[in-house]
Specification:
This protein folds into 3 domains: about 1-280, alpha-galactosidase from lactobacil brevis (Beta-galactosidase, Chain A, domain 5, Distorted Sandwich); about 295-595, TIM Barrel (Alpha-Beta Barrel), CATH 3.20.20.70; about 600-700, Immunoglobulin-like. It has 13 helices and 38 strands. Strands 6, 7, 8, 9, 11, 12, 14, 15, 19 and 20 form a 10-stranded antiparallel beta sheet that branches. The protein has an 8-stranded parallel beta barrel with strand order 21-22-23-26-27-28-29-30, surrounded by 6 helices. The longest helix has 23 residues, at about 575-595. The mean pLDDT is about 95. The structure holds (2R,3S,4R,5S)-2-(hydroxymethyl)piperidine-3,4,5-triol (DGJ). (2R,3S,4R,5S)-2-(hydroxymethyl)piperidine-3,4,5-triol binds next to loops.
Length: about 700
C-alpha cells in the first residue's frame, strides 16, 4: 500500500493513488489508481506542495504560521526523514480514524527556529479515504506561538474547479451549494465553537472527471480554504480555524492538528460511497458500529416540557404496542425545569414529573418491553440552577462582562479539568440511575463568552474541544453498550469528530418531510445513512406548518435511522395501524435501509434515495415528487447501483402490482412512477406532496 522509490512515496488505495516527494514536500499526483512502473519525475516541475509557510516565494495561503521568540514569522522546514509505520500513531485527546493499515510519517525541521513538523498519511486496507495529520514540536529553548497549523494541504494543477459546500442554518442544515471558484480565495469555516449548522467541514472540489473530498475529524472551529493561486494552481487547506487561535508551545511541547480525510472518485456518487465506507469502517466504533439501530419514540414534539409520569407511561405503552423498541425521555425531567430558563446542570430527578424518580419511570417504560433512553445537555448550565448557585465558576463567562444568554443558558467551562470531572460524574450517574441504554446528548447554543481562568484566550476554543473529547472518551469507555446519539439544536455538530463517539446524530430539528429531503441528501454526501437520526413527527409540522401524508413522512425517514417524535396516543386508530405496519416493515428491512449502499436519486422534479444490498440482489428506493400539478408530465426516475444484467421484480410498497425490468433499463431509462394526481391526493389523503417506495428483488442474473 505504501511503496518507496528514492524519496518518492506512492500510497495506493484500492482505486486511488497519492504520490508524494518527501524531500521537496511535493504532492506529485493524486487521482485514479495508476499502474506500477512510473517514476513520476516529470511531475516534480509542477511545484505542488503539501505544506507551506511564509518565508519563501509562495505567497498563497499557507498551512503553517509560527511566531518565534525573536518576533519573526518565517519558517523553512527542510526534509529530515520519512518512516513507514505499521501502527497508526494516536492523536492525544483528539478523535481519529482507526484500523489496520500503513502510515507514512514525514519529518521536516526549520533549522533556525528548531521547529519540527511531522505530517502523516495513513491508508487502510480496502478503503479509498486517506487520513492526514500534522504535528509541530518546538525544539527550541524558547517558547513559540503557533498561529496556524492546517491538517492538510493539497495543491491541484490548473484553476478549472468547482467547489461544493454544505451550507445552512438551524432547520436548514447541509444544503448542497456549488459554485465556480473564480480567482481569489474562498473560505468555508465556523467560528462559533462547533462545526456548526452554517458550514459543515466537508467540502468537494470538482475537476474534470474527478471529484475530491475533504473532511475533518473535528467538531470545533474549522476552516477550509480554496485558493486559485497565481501560477495556475489550486490550493486546498483544511484544519482548525486560526480565528482567535494563538497557541504557545513551550520548549519540547507538541501541538497536534486534528485529523483530516482526503478522498477522490470519478463522480459525486462514487465519492459518497467511498466516504460512507470509510466512516462506517474507520470512524464509527464500538458495539453499535454495525448493529441495527432500534426504532425509537421520543416525547419531545409530543409533549415538550409538559409531561408527567402518567403521560410518559401511556405514550410508552402505545409506542410498544405499535412495535417501538426504545422510548426516549427528552428535555424536562430534572431539577425544576418547566421551560428552557432553568435547571441545566441539576441532573437530579424532578420527582413530581417523573412520578417518584427517573429509575421508577424508566422501569415503567421497560415494563412495556421497551428499552429506556434519556436526554441530557451536559455541556450547559442555567443561571437558575443549584449548580450555578454553588459553583458559578463552572460557567464559561468573562469576568466583568455580562454573558450572552443564548436560549437562556450559559456553557460550562469544559477547558477545566474539574468541570470535565463533573460532567463525567453527572452523565454517569444519570445512566446508572436510570439504566438507560441510549443517551441523546444535546448542545443547544454556541460559544460566545470564551474564557477560562488560566487558559490563554487564543487557546480557549481548542482547549474546550480537548476537554469535551476527554469527557466523551471516558464515558465511551465506561458505558460501551450505551447507544449515544449526538444532537446540537438538531444538526449543529454533525461531523466526523462526534461520530467517533456517537454512532448516530440527530440530523435536524426540522422534521418536515419536505424539508428533510434536501437536509438528508446534503448530509449523505459525506455521512452514511446509519449516522442520521430521521424521525416522523405530527402534522401540521411544528417547524413549518406543512402537512404531509404519513406514508410520505415514512418514506423520507427511512433514508436515515427511523424514529417517531410525536404523541402516539393522539393518533387516530387508522394512523396507529399504519405506524404499526411501517415499523414491522422497517424492522424486516432495516439492515438494508440502515447499512445498505445508499445513493441519492435526483431527476426532473424528484429526489430520493436507493439502498442496495452488497450484491445488489435487493434494494429499496424512495422517490419523492418535489412539485405537482394536474398538468405535470409523467414523473420519472432513474435508479442507481443495480446489476445491469440482472432482472428485477419491482413492487410499489402498499400496492399489489409488480413489473419486471433489467437493472440496465431501470438505471438508463426514465421509469414513470405510479402516482395519484396531486389534487386527488390532496382531497383524499390530506396532502399533495407525494412519494413512492419501490421494493426491488433480483429474480434472475
Ligand atoms: C433541541 C433538540 O434538537 C430537540 O430535539 C430537543 O431535544 C430540544 N433541544 C430539547 O430542549
Amino acid at each position: 500500500m505504501i511503496k518507496k522509490n528514492g524519496t518518492v512515496y506512492r500510497l495506493d488505495t484500492p482505486n486511488t493513488t497519492l504520490v508524494l516527494q518527501a524531500d521537496t514536500a511535493q504532492m506529485l499526483y493524486y487521482g485514479p489508481r495508476l499502474p506500477a512502473g512510473d517514476s513520476f519525475a516529470p511531475l516534480a516541475r509542477l511545484g505542488r506542495r503539501f505544506f507551506s509557510a511564509p518565508g519563501r516565494e509562495d505567497y498563497a495561503e499557507y498551512s503553517l504560521l509560527a511566531e518565534y521568540a525573536d518576533g519573526s514569522f518565517a519558517s523553512d522546514p527542510v526534509f529530515v526523514r520519512a518512516k513507514v509505520l505499521s501502527e497508526k500513531p494516536a492523536l492525544p485527546d483528539l478523535p481519529s480514524s482507526y484500523g489496520e493499515g500503513k502510515t507514512l510519517e514525514l519529518h521536516y525541521t526549520d533549522r533556525v527556529s528548531r521547529l519540527h513538523l511531522y505530517i502523516t498519511y495513513s491508508v487502510f486496507g480496502g478503503c479509498d479515504a486517506i487520513a492526514v495529520s500534522a504535528r509541530v514540536v518546538n525544539g527550541a529553548k524558547k517558547p513559540l506561538r503557533l498561529r496556524r497549523l492546517m491538517s492538510l494541504q493539497c495543491d491541484f494543477p490548473g484553476t478549472e474547479y468547482e467547489i461544493v459546500t454544505f451550507h445552512g442554518a438551524w432547520l436548514q442544515e447541509r444544503q448542497k451549494t456549488q459554485r465556480r471558484i473564480g480567482r481569489g480565495v474562498f473560505v468555508n469555516d465556523s467560528k462559533c465553537g462547533s462545526s456548526s449548522h452554517a458550514r459543515n467541514p466537508f467540502l468537494l472540489l470538482k475537476g474534470e472527471g474527478q471529484v475530491y473530498g475533504f473532511n475533518l475529524v473535528y467538531s470545533g472551529n474549522h476552516k477550509e480554504i480554496v485558493e486559485c493561486c497565481e501560477n495556475e494552481r489550486t490550493r486546498v487547506l483544511a484544519g482548525i480555524n486560526d480565528f482567535q487561535f494563538d497557541w504557545t508551545l513551550a520548549p519540547g511541547e507538541s501541538f497536534y492538528a486534528p485529523e483530516a480525510v482526503l478522498c477522490c472518485a470519478p463522480t459525486e456518487d462514487a465519492l459518497s460511497a467511498r466516504m460512507h465506507a470509510f466512516v462506517a469502517e474507520h470512524i464509527v466504533r464500538g458495539k453499535w458500529k454495525k448493529r441495527e439501530r432500534p426504532v425509537l419514540f421520543n416525547n419531545w414534539e409530543g409533549t415538550y416540557f409538559g409531561f408527567d409520569a402518567e403521560k410518559i407511561d401511556a405514550m410508552a405503552q402505545t409506542a410498544a404496542r405499535l412495535g417501538a423498541e426504545l422510548f426516549v425521555l427528552d428535555d424536562g425531567w430534572f431539577g425544576h425545569r418547566e421551560d428552557d430558563t432553568s435547571s441545566l446542570g441539576d441532573w437530579y430527578d424532578n420527582v413530581q414529573k417523573t412520578g417518584g424518580g427517573l429509575a421508577a419511570l424508566a422501569d415503567r417504560v421497560r415494563a412495556h418491553g421497551l428499552a429506556f433512553g434519556i436526554w441530557i445537555e451536559p455541556e450547559m448550565i442555567s443561571e437558575d440552577s443549584d449548580l450555578y448557585r454553588t459553583r458559578p465558576n463552572f460557567a464559561m463567562k468573562i469576568p466583568g462582562r455580562e454573558p450572552y444568554r443564548w436560549r437562556n443558558q450559559l456553557m460550562l467551562n469544559l477547558a477545566e479539568e474539574r468541570v470535565q470531572n463533573f460532567v463525567v460524574r453527572s452523565v454517569s450517574d444519570v445512566i446508572v440511575r436510570s439504566g438507560a441504554s441510549y443517551v441523546k446528548w444535546d448542545y443547544n447554543r454556541c460559544m460566545t463568552d470564551c474564557y477560562g481562568k488560566g487558559v490563554a484566550g487564543g487557546e480557549y476554543f481548542h482547549r474546550y474541544m480537548l476537554g469535551l473529547y476527554r469527557v466523551l472518551q471516558r464515558l465511551q469507555k465506561r458505558f460501551p453498550s450505551v447507544l449515544f446519539e449526538g444532537c446540537a439544536s438538531g444538526g449543529g455538530r454533525f461531523d466526523l469528530g462526534m461520530l467517533c463517539y456517537f454512532p448516530q446524530i440527530w440530523t435536524s430539528d426540522d422534521t418536515d418531510a419536505r424539508e428533510r429531503i434536501s437536509i438528508q441528501a446534503g448530509t449523505s454526501y459525506a455521512y452514511p445513512q446509519s449516522t442520521m437520526g430521521a424521525h416522523i413527527s405530527a402534522c401540521p409540522n411544528h417547524q413549518t406548518g406543512n402537512s404531509n401524508l404519513l406514508s410520505v413522512r415514512f418514506n423520507v425517514s427511512c433514508g436515515g435511522v427511523l424514529g417517531y417524535e410525536l404523541d402516539p396516543c393522539a393518533l387516530s386508530a387508522q394512523e396507529q395501524e399504519e405506524i404499526a405496519e411501517q415499523i414491522a416493515f422497517y424492522k424486516a428491512n432495516r439492515k438494508l435501509l440502515q447499512f445498505g449502499q445508499q445513493y441519492r436519486l435526483e431527476g426532473r422534479g424528484v429526489a430520493g434515495y436507493i439502498a442496495l444490498s452488497k450484491d445488489a440482489s435487493s434494494a429499496i428506493a424512495a422517490v419523492h415528487v418535489l412539485q405537482g400539478s394536474l398538468t405535470e408530465p409523467p414523473v420519472t426516475v432513474r435508479l442507481k447501483g443495480l446489476n445491469a444484467s440482472a432482472l428485477y421484480e419491482v413492487r410499489v410498497r402498499g400496492k399489489e402490482e409488480t413489473f419486471t425490468a433489467t437493472g440496465a433499463l431501470l438505471m438508463r431509462a426514465d421509469i414513470p412512477l405510479p402516482l395519484e394526481d396531486p389534487v386527488k391526493s390532496a382531497r383524499e389523503n390530506g396532502g399533495s406532496f407525494r412519494s413512492v417506495m419501490l421494493l426491488l428483488k433480483r429474480i434472475r442474473g
